[in-house]
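User: What would this chain look like folded?
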Amino acid sequence: MATAPEYNEGIDPERALKFAVQRVHGDRAEIIEGVIGFMPPAWDHENAAEAVRDQIKGRVRELGCLTGSGNLDLPGSPNWYVPDLAVVPKDLAKRANALLPDQTLLIVEVTSESNAETDRVVKRKRYAEYGAPLYLLVDRVEKSITLFSEPGPLGYTGAEGPHPFGTPLHLPAPFDLDLDTSDL
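Assistant: Here's the prediction, encoded as structure tokens.
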């Protein structure tokens, strides 16, 4: 009589989870610390992301990049993120289903009541750990904006903010522009 195989026999849980999340139909889905979550953003949330996108669009084109909310893989962890906005080189985006955080130039997360702590703590830590050079946190709950820079395995060592909405925020190279935060 044959016995049933052991549950984990030959299965890589990280790969299985990431395979599954890429096949979800409907709303955007991501994995945060091993938990699949669905992210149907509200219009006020989208407005904040669009306000940032509109201001950086010209510079993004000059850099040969594009903006979007595509998949970011964090290999070796149970995480698969879909940021509210990321700036990535066009040539990389053309060839990939998912990119790594260190392949971005900027990642923007916009908080909602339901995910504010995740964006402030978990994603900030993970983006730094995986080398995302700039992480812009648009905190709609606290009505503030913070730019994190200088990533490392223990987190970001540089932070500009939090500043209340309405305070201009300078995005350093390669952007070198001031964001108007009054419409966030």
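Residues 43-62 form the longest helix (20 residues). If you want, I can go into more detail on any region.
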